[in-house]
Structure formats: structure tokens, C-alpha cells
Amino acid sequence: MSSQRLPLLALLAAAIALPLVFRGEYFMHLMIMVLFYTVLASSLNIVTGYIGQLSLGHAAFFGIGCYAAAMLTLDAGWSVWTAMIIAGLAAAVAGFVIGYITLRLDGHYFVLITLAFAEVLRLVVINWEEVTRGPLGFPNIPRPSIVLGGEVMVDFSSKTHFYYVALVLVVITLWAKHRFVYSAMGRASVAIRENPRLAQSVGIDPFYYSMVAFVLGAFFAGLSGWFYAHYISYVGPDVYGFGFMVTMLIMIAVGGRGTIVGPVIGAAIITIVVEELRFAREIRLSLFGLLLMLSILFFPRGLVSVPDLLRRRGWWPGAGKTGTA
Amino acid sequence: MALLEIDVLSKSFGGLQAVRDISLAVDDGEIVSLIGPNGAGKTTVFNLVTGYLPPSSGRIRFAGRDIVGLKPHTIAGLGLVRTFQITNVFPALSVFDNIVAAHYLKARVPLWKTWFRDRAVAAREATAHAAAEEVMGFLGLGHRRDMTAENLAYGELRLLELAIGLGAGPRMLLLDEPAAGLNTEESARLVTLLREIAGTRGITILIVEHDMNVVMEVSHRVVVMNFGEKIAEGSPEHVRQHEQVIEAYLGRGFEDEAPATPA
Amino acid sequence: MLDVALQFLVNGLVTGSFYALMALGLAMIFGLMEVVNFAHGEFFVMGGVVAYAFCNVLGVDFYLTIVIVVALMFAFGAATDYLLIRPLRGQHLLSTALVTIGLSIFLINTMLLTFGTSPQGLDAPFSRKPIIIGEIVITEGRLFAIVVGAVAIVATHILIQKTRLGRAMRATFQQKEAAALVGVNVERVYTLTFALGTAMAAIAGVLLGAVFVIHPSTAELATLKAFVVVILGGMTNLPGAVAGGLLLGVVESLWGGFVSTGYMDVIGFALVIFILLFRPYGLFAPRPGR
Fold first, then answer.
1. Which domains does chain C have, with CATH numbers?
2. Are the beta carbons of A296 and C95 separated by less than 8 Å?
3. More confident residue, C266 or C189
4. Chain B adjacent subunits, 3+ CB pairs under 8 A
5. Is A5-312 assigned to CATH 2.60.120?
6. Which of the four pLDDT bands, split at 50, 70 and 90, describes residue C265?
7. Which among B123, B170, B186, C282 counts the fewest CB atoms within 10 Å?
């Protein structure tokens, strides 16, 4: 039933062992960003990949997670771990409200109204200085620490500590998503994506499942925001901006939307490609844009579809089987 | 008491009367055909009955319950399931996944059980999969099990639509032109299948169809519409000789009248 | 008080005519063709950058430059449609959205590299001396921008209502299959529509360069604003897009003048949310009959 389970487990084993083998600070940072983006892109993929709605407001939920973490720990003095739960829940509540309003609209309108919500939030964050500190944002967000019996066990002074927290978040996200995908609910979501009218005719309520996916996606985006805030230790209004939105969209598109592995591949490839293109200096972003266009044109279903494409030409073992879900 | 009762049902789009005072009853176990020239309002009737469009006036009762104003998925949940005129499947999914997805009502569990599964969830999953296997076998789609729906031949696509309709576990099926585009052999097969669906499976059928051979062979009763109104009703033989019906089909009725209903 | 308001109104109309041109182009690409075009702001900036290359660098006459820019950007739009959009027609809107995102990243950074990050104005032959009409002050350049904007809009209207191509366009976007059946080359219509939309955005860019400055970093906000206006106007409603553009320009100018500049950019987005919830068919279209 779940053909995606084996590669995922193999990846997990490799990920656990990774810091034992490679210890470079820079390398660890790259891997942490890959894991962080895996959570963020996977959260968007629940909405865009499975329900099939292009939500351009997803960065707002990430931003809410970031700001919740920053404000709760800096202004309210809460523990980093409590902030984690609240960051996720705050984003989920925002997802519920925005989803309830927007999911009644179809395709093109939905794209723009979600974008408008994110923009309004971003502009409010910039302008409402009393609460959000405006364009300056929040510097010096505290690191987490694990305290047992009054003694600090892990102080997160090393990147490896963050790495394992990110890995745990990835595992939770992918587990939740795996359960979602291989269930009646996941099938209902895919049915809505493929043909909403037909889905209704077999008893599926598109609005209900769109809401579930939207709230779920918002929750995990909020969690990733919490992680980002504490790892980078600074958040500003740009976390609501189009930059993060575009990055996660590209990741799910290049990796393969509507699959569990796709956003993982996308997060890894895009993070690394952006780094590797540093040699190209100024033309880096131009090249990146070019690569994005080519990848969409030649692999419209993402890189996860490459084995299928090769198989159809007989360049890869196994029978040609297609399908995204 | 009839399973489906439609009482003086009307629908107008702007100034255009697409359906006018239609009354119709379908009894349990019956196969009834709804025929008429293009634009007569047949598909609109389907859309009204299954909640895809709100009626302007009139009553619709299914199994004794008033269903006007209910959402399409709720109506499907009551056992009144429709198919669509233009091919409608879940294109990127395999044939089997299409049919499993259609068994949603059998597999559905409370939200939290998606992540915290118990035996009941496994049992429902197993039931839904077994039912999907059975429907796939019944329609002879087993050899296409893993093929993506968008790669199916046309005739098989129409069978898959039927499979999806059956997947929802209907008491009554509304089929919108199931024979359209089928060759003679495929139509003959469809007639057999429809009889089995009504006979063995005990599913009541209301069918919109242009293929008169299919209509005459399967129907217990035929209802004829033209320009949004019911102009005749009776046994296939009766309708075949009905003067107005002949005129509707051969006379002015063939001009294109009403605009396409937003089906 | 009133004369100040009148001045803001006129300033708003100038900005509004840029919005109107951009939105008219986007209403074709997004409203009619249903391509979520994230490169629209880049097309707009590109108009200014190409004009800068001809007018300031090569020293070509300003008016001739406008003609050259329109022709080049029309061709560029046609090429973009042919190479990037056509292969993805009929696919999920995510695919075209992403390709245009890729295009926008490519264009904006290439322009930043070639044009630079500092804003530049065009060498337009307008006198800086203000024209005073009653209580209102307006410059020659701004007047020119309003006039050219109006001419472009009227020309588009005539093109769509009176010419063969216009008929083919209307047929295609009303009923694609039927249009194809009666012999309309649907693919060609799509490509020409995209090209026309691109050229519209580019004209706005040239005019902006003549009146204010060309600045590549404005592209993103320009894209978002154009989407806002298209929704205000009612998606496929071209006159609505024009009206929406003028309205947004005026409202922003009045708000910025009398209330606060901080939240000026919020207005458009807040309006979009409001409209999509209560009047999803746009501000200017009649409520569709059911």
C-alpha cells in the first residue's frame, strides 16, 4: 500500500547517523536548513499537493509561528517549548479563520485572496510597531534548552542539537502526513483535487476536507516558524513575505507535489542548489530562475516522476506505473 | 410509496425557464428513462435532484425525506448518487484507486482516528477495499486495475464512471447518458449491466439517454421532456407511438434551444 | 481643503492610469487566459528598462522609443507564451504560476545586473515647468502619461470590439471549442492575447519612467497591485480593470494625503478581501442573474 515507506525509513536512518560522520559547522547548517524547509514545504504540500489549492497565503502561517515564538519568549518570558505548542496552535487557528473565509471561493480567486491575507498581515506587522516592533523585528530570540532536575542537560550551543530537534519535527510532520495520505481522508482529499464535483457525488464534503488540510498545513507551518525563530534567533516582517512563499512553492513543484517524498527532495535540492550557485555570484538568482522554468517545463510532476519517465523508455527497471498519490 | 418523488419542480436561469413544473415518481427497483431532445432540461433535473443546483420552486423527496436545500455530498450520503454526462473520473489515479476513493462512505472514520488508528479503522479499510475489488470485478475492469484512469480507452472510462457511482453504495443511481459514445457491442453490454444493477443489486435507476435502443431495452417506464416540460410518460411501447414525442424528435425540436445548462 | 483634495485626485489619476494599463494587460493574461502571471510587474519594469536602453543609452528619440518598446515587448510576450505558457496549457494553474515565478526571478535579477539598483529617469522632452489649471498643478509629463494611457486603452477597446482579431478573441474566451470549430486559430489568439497584455504593462513602465523613475525593485509590488486591480474590476471585465485602476490610484492618493501613508498599501489588499467575500464578480459588473 505505501510504496513511499521504505525510502523514507532508509533516509531517516541515514539522517540520524549523519552528524556522527560529518561534523563541519557549515555542513550542519545546510542540513538544518534542509530539514527546516522539509517541514515548511511539506506543510504547504498538504494543501497544494493533496487538496490541489494553490494557497499563496501559506507564508502567513509560517510568519505567525515565527512571531508567536519571538513574542512569547521575549515579551512574555515563556519557555521555548511552551512557545512551540502555542506557535503551532496559533497558526492553526489563523488557518481555521482564513480557511473558513477563503475556501468557499474557487481556484483563481482563492489564489489571490490568500495572497491578499498574507500581504495585509505583513503590512500590519510592519506598521503596528507597538506590538510587532515594526520593520526592526525581534533580535536575540533565546535558544531552547533541555533542563532535567534543575540541571541543564542540553544547552543548544551546538548546531548538532538543533539538527536533532529539526529531525524530530521532520519525523512528526512526515508521520502525520503519511497517516493522512494513506487514509480515507487522504483519498477524499485527492478525490477533491482530481475532481471536486465527482467527489461530492460520492459523498465527500470538499469544504470539510479542504478545511482539515488547510488547518493541518497551517499547524506545521507554524511549527516550522517556531524552529526558524529560535534557530536563526531573529525574525522580521520578511517572514511573511513572498520570498518564503516562493521558496516553498518551488520546493514542492521541483520535488513533486502530491507526494510525501517530493517536498523532501525539493527542500534538499533547492537548499543545496542555491548554496552551490554561490560561485556564480551575481548571476546566481538569474540562473536559479532559469533552472526553475526548465524544471517545470520538463518535469511538470517534479523530480519524483523521473524514475517513471525513465521506466517508460525502458531505462529504469520495473514496470511503468504512473499516478501521483 | 415511491422512492424518489419530484413535485412540480421548476428552474429558471434569468428569464429562461429550463425546467417547468415537472412531476415524476420512481418506485423502488424500477428503471426509468428520461428522454428528450438536447436542451430539454434533463440534465438540469439531475442537477436539481442531486443538489448541484437549487430549484426555483417545487419539492423533491427521497425515501420520504425532503432533500431540497441539502448539499450534494449529503444527498449522496442518503443513497442518491449521480453520474455525469461528460466523462468524469479522478484522472491521475489508477482504476483501482478511483474505485477505492469512491467507497469513501464505507471507509470514512472520525477525524482523530486518521492518526490514532484502532481495529475499527482497519476493518472499515478492509471492507472498503473488498467492496472496491468486488465492483471492479463486476464491471470487468480487473485487468486495468493499475492503469491510470486518463490512459483508459473511452468505453472503459464510461465503465469506470459507473464503478465510481456504485462505489458510493447507492439505493438509487441517476445516470447521465451512460451509453453516449459507446459502440453497439459496448451498449449491449451496458444493457446487461444495468439490468443486473437493478435486478441483482436492487438499485433503482433513473437514466438520461439518447440511445433509443438502450432506452427501449432497459426501461420499465419512459418519461419524455421537451422545452423543460414533461410531454409524455408511459411504457416504452406507449412512448414510441406517442405523437408529441415523435414531433419533438423529428419536428422543430431538433433546433438548438436552451443554452447549455451549467451541469 | 477642497483644492488640496482636487490636487490629490489629479495625482491619483496619474498613478491610476499606470495601474489601469497594467491591470488591463493582466486582465487579459489572468482574467481571460487564466494564467496567474507573476512576471507581470517585471514586464512593466522591463518596458522602462528597454526604453532606458534606447532613449538614454542609444539616444533614440523619445517618441520613437515608445513605439520600439511596444513592438519589442509585444514580441517578447509572444515568445514567452510560445515557449513557456503554451506547453503547460490545460494543466493545473500551479504549473503556469511557477513558470512565471521562475521567469520573474530570472528577469528581475537580470535587470538588476544590467540596469543597476539605482532608480533612473528617462530623457523625456518635457519641460519641468508646471502647468496650472485653476488650483491644480500638473506637469507636462504627467499630462502626457494620462493622454497616452487613455489612447492605449481606447485603442485596445477598438481592437477588441471592431477588428477580426478582437472577434476571434471574444469568441475564444467565451467558448473555446466553438471558436475552434468555426475556424479560429485558438492557439494563435492565446499567444496574441498574452503579447498584447505584455505590451500594455510595458507601456505603463515607459510612462512611469518618463514621469517618475524606473526602479527594478518595484516589480513585485506592481505585480500584486495589478492583481488587486483585476479583481476590483471583476477578472474578465476589461473596462472594469481600467476603472479599478483609476479608482485604486485615487483612493490611495487621498488616503495617503489625508489619513496616513503607512497603511496606504493595505487598502488594495483589504479591498480585495472585502470584494471577494461580498462581490466576487467585481465592483463594476452587475450581479449575475441566477
1. 2-278 (1.10.3470)
2. yes
3. C189
4. A, C
5. no
6. confident
7. B123
Q: Show which of residues 231-290 on chain C sit within 8 Å of chain B, judged by CB atoms.
A: 289-290
Distance CA C201, CA C43 (A): 6
Q: Which stretches of chain B are DSSP H helices?
A: 42-49, 72-77, 95-102, 104-107, 119-138, 154-167, 184-199, 212-218, 236-240, 243-250
Q: What is each CA distance from C161 to A5, C149, C166, in whole angstroms?
A: 58, 18, 6
Rounded to whole angstroms, the Cα distance separating A85 from C3 reads 55
C-alpha cell at B87: 466523462
Q: What's the one-letter identity of residue A262?
A: G
A82-88 contact pairs (CB < 8 A, 24+)? A83/A226, A84/A223, A84/A226, A87/A222, A87/A223, A87/A225, A87/A226, A87/A229, A88/A219, A88/A220, A88/A222, A88/A223, A88/A226
Using a pLDDT cut of 90, give the percent of chain B over it: 70
Do the chains contact at A292 and C92, CB–CB below 8 Å? no
What pLDDT digit, counting tens, does each position of C177-188 carry? 888 888 888 999
CA C50 to chain centre: 16
In 3D, which of A48, A123, A126 has the Cα closest to residue C273? Answer: A123
Is the distance from CB of A49 to CB of A262 less than 8 angstroms? yes
Nearest to A208 by CA among A220, A195, A199: A199
d(CA C85, CA C108): 19
Residue in A184, A188, A203 closest to B76 by CB: A203
- ipTM, 2 decimals? 0.88
What is the widest separation between alpha-carbon atoms in chain B?
64
